[in-house]
Each structure stands twice: as C-alpha cells, then as structure tokens.
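Sequence design from tokenized structure. All designs in this work follow the same two-part layout: the structure record, then the generated sequence. An example of the structure record is given first.
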C-alpha cells in the first residue's frame, strides 16, 4: 500500500512538472564584430533574459546626444549597426545618428537594484521615461562571449570569460541570422549533451532547458511577438 502511495505521488509530481509553465528562457545569438583596425571578432551575445513575462526585455544600443536618447533594441528585424556609416540597420529601414552623438550598449537591468550617480558614463541608467517599464545600464563596451560554455547559458556560467569590446573601436556589429554550419552544429551538439545530462530519466523533478537562439526565432515567424516593439 505504501509503495502504491509513493508511486502515485511520484506520478503527480511528474504531471505537475510536465504541465508547469516554465516561462521563456534566455535568448542568445551568434554575432560578428568588425573592428576599425580590420580585425574580426566572432562570438556569442545575450539578446535578453527569460522569465515569466510573455516577451523578452532585450538588450540593444542607444545613441545619446544633449537633447535626445535614441534606443535601438534587439528585435527580430535587427540586422546590424555600422559606426562608420552612423546607422542602425533594420530589414525595413535604417536610422542615422550624428557623429556628435555618443553610442552606448544597453543592458537591461529592470529587475536589478542598482544605485548610481547621475552622470553620463558607463554606469549611467536609461530610465523608463525612454523605454516604458524597462531600465537599462549604458555601457561603453559590447559584452561578447568568444567561447560557448558546455552549460550553454552565457552569463550564468562563471567559467565563461566576457570580452569587453570598446564601442569606440567597433566599425560594424551584426546579429547572425544564418550562422555557419560549424557553429550551428556546435550548438546542437551542446544541446544534446545538455539534455542527456539534465533530462535523462529518471528526472529528479527539476528538468532543465537550454537557452533559445536568435537564428531559430528568426526562422519561426510565429514567435515574433516574443520581442518588445522596436524603439527609437
């Protein structure tokens, strides 16, 4: 009788896990950076954090002048940013920014408690009067991961090293919508190992899931609503 009770409890726990809403998972992307000296940096970047919201609070860029702040968040339409031509590129149109503007990388810190001095530097905060309900940290560098960790999650793996690429050294930045077969194969192999490690039966009641990839979302137009609207 006791064994039957234990089995029933176990089945109930499994059913709860199978039907539980795990929210959305972190979105990551393969990216390419060309420096003004001609060097190319290939790597990985975090598009946005997951959670129980219905859309991603994405990172992005922001052109800052004395009068205006012009954010350009990552979205399914994001193509690139070219500092030489001073433009953000989308599939439909592009937005220019002045050579007098200062360009920052936006990192979403909406759920992070952070106190900073109000000054225009890498610790300055872009408040929600610019992008509703979001708060961003303005960085003067782009945080790139040159190695894909075995655990797949970029900024949740302490052994993975961030490369801080100063924006002033960048000529061109791109999110790859069609990474090379070698990179795609690497990601898929890591995902297989991830699932074997964390989701091979018997599951301990705490299944884990790999992050979502930008190039897969781009292919699946039904998931476009996972992004907040593009903002300038």
């Amino acid at each position: 009788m006791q064994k039957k009770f234990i089995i029933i409890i176990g089945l109930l726990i499994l059913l709860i896990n199978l039907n539980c809403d795990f929210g959305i998972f972190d979105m990551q992307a393969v990216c390419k950076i060309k420096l003004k000296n001609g060097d190319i940096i290939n790597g990985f970047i975090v598009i946005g954090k997951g959670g129980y919201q219905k859309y991603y609070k994405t990172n992005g860029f922001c052109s800052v002048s004395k009068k205006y702040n012009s954010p350009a968040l990552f979205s399914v339409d994001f193509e690139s940013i070219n500092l030489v031509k001073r433009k953000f590129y989308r599939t439909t149109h592009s937005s220019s920014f002045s050579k007098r503007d200062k360009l920052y990388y936006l990192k979403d810190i909406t759920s992070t408690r952070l106190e900073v001095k109000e000054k225009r530097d890498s610790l300055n905060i872009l408040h929600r009067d610019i992008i509703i309900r979001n708060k961003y940290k303005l960085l003067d560098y782009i945080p790139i991961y040159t190695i894909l960790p075995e655990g797949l999650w970029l900024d949740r793996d302490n052994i993975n090293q961030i490369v801080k690429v100063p924006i002033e050294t960048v000529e061109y930045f791109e999110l790859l919508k069609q990474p090379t077969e070698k990179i795609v194969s690497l990601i898929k192999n890591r995902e297989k190992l991830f699932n074997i490690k964390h989701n091979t039966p018997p599951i301990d009641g705490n299944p884990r899931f790999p992050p979502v990839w930008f190039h897969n979302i781009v292919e699946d137009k039904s998931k476009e609503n996972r992004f907040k609207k593009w903002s300038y």
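The CA atoms of residues 109 and 136 lie 5 Å apart. We note this feature because it recurs in several other targets discussed in the main text.
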